[in-house]
Amino acid sequence: MIIRKEYKFYAAHRNEELQDKCRNLHGHRYGIVCHFEVQRTGSYSTLFSDFDDKIGPFLKEKYDHGMLINVNDPLYTTLKSHMATHGEDFKLCEFQGPTSVENLAYKLFTEITRMGFDLSLLEVQETDTSVISYDREDWARDNEAQVFSAAHAIDSAQ
Question: How many domains does the chain have?
Answer without folding.
Answer: 1
